Amino acid sequence: MKIEGRNKVKPEFNMSSMTDIVFLLLIFFMLASTLVTTNAIDILLPSASGKTTNKKAVNVTITKDFIFYVDQNTVAEQNLELELIDIISGTSQPTITLRAEESVPISKVAYVMDIANRNKIKVILAVKP
């Protein structure tokens, strides 16, 4: 007569719980990555070998339709200087990052740079590396 014990341990490992955890993590990271948004207006920048690294600067953007933005707020070209002075007042080292699209004429870029020069504001020209 063959006698077997009831408490026999099986040497098998069940991987189904591990795959469930991996799939849940995959879904979590896929959803989390779609919620990340950039804080910039989508424009085509000119190419250069430099890179803009100043994070404390005020962003001035000029689109191909000659619409001026100061930190994502639309500003009329005539009111640009007043808006920049209001935002930059009280900072020790005022800096603006100028983001002009490739097709924007140099006269519009020079206009913003002239405003910065008159008000002793440092200008960083953003380019696509």
Write the layout of secondary structure elements.
Elements: H1 16-34, E1 58-62, E2 68-70, E3 73-75, H2 80-88, E4 95-100, H3 106-118, E5 122-125
Parallel strand pairs: 1-4, 4-5
Antiparallel strand pairs: 1-2, 2-3
Structure description:
The structure is a single chain. The chain is of the alpha/beta class and 129 residues long. The protein has a domain at 58-125: Nucleotidyltransferase, domain 5 (2-Layer Sandwich). The chain is built from three helices and five strands, in the order αβββαβαβ. A five-stranded mixed beta sheet has the order 3-2-1-4-5, with helices on one face. The chain is rod-shaped, with a radius of gyration of 28 Å. It starts with 15 loop residues before the first helix and ends with a strand. The model has no long low-confidence stretch (mean pLDDT 81).
Output the keywords.
5 strands, 16% strand, 129 residues, single chain, alpha/beta
Question: Could you give a short description of this structure?
Answer:
The chain is built from 3 helices and 5 strands. With 129 residues, it is an alpha/beta fold.
The number of distinct β-strands equals 5
**Broad shape:** rod-shaped
Secondary-structure element string: HEEEHEHE
What is the C-alpha radius of gyration, as a whole number of Å?
28 Å
Task: Provide the CATH architecture of the domain at 58-125.
Answer: 2-Layer Sandwich
What structural class should be given to the helix and strand makeup? alpha/beta
Total count of helical runs of at least 4 residues: 3
Could you name the ranges where pLDDT drops below 50 across 5 or more consecutive residues?
Answer: none
- Going across the major beta sheet, what is the strand order? 3-2-1-4-5
Beta strand %: 15-25%
Helix percentage range: 25-40%
Q: First CA to last CA: what distance?
A: 81 Å
Mean pLDDT: 81
User: Mind telling me the CATH class of the domain at 58-125?
Assistant: Alpha Beta
CATH fold annotation of the domain at 58-125: Nucleotidyltransferase, domain 5
Strand count, sense and barrel status of the largest sheet are: 5 strands, mixed
